[in-house]
Amino acid sequence: MTVEAQRAVAAAVVVRGERVLLVRRRAAEGALSWQFPAGKIESEETPEEAAARETEEETGLLVVPQTVLGQRVHPMTGREIHYIACRPVGGQAVVASADEVAGLAWATHGELPQYVPHGLFGPVQNYLDEALLS
Question: Taking burial as the number of CB atoms within 10 A of a residue's CB, which of 17, 70, 90, 127 is the most buried?
């Protein structure tokens, strides 16, 4: 396995009001089509920095990392993934990287199962339960 294939991924869990940002990948990873903005962590950056960079690259939205929600080896992709709660601070979410992203959505708590039918990582679900229902 190459170093590139082993590189961990950072995912930004971006909440605005009572909605969370999801992107639809141009190329689905198995059953994963809708995901949080995410990408590989570069060698010189932290997971928090990668989550913010990837969100801007994919959606044009500027975010500030707030909290590390946890990390795991994703059961569907086998990749190490770091989940970072982020707060939007500028810009509007659009499809900024059309080669990677086919669409985006601001989903409510009740809509999450239709976008992510296999469920979310426990700490992420707990965070969204609190953030979107408060």
Answer: 127
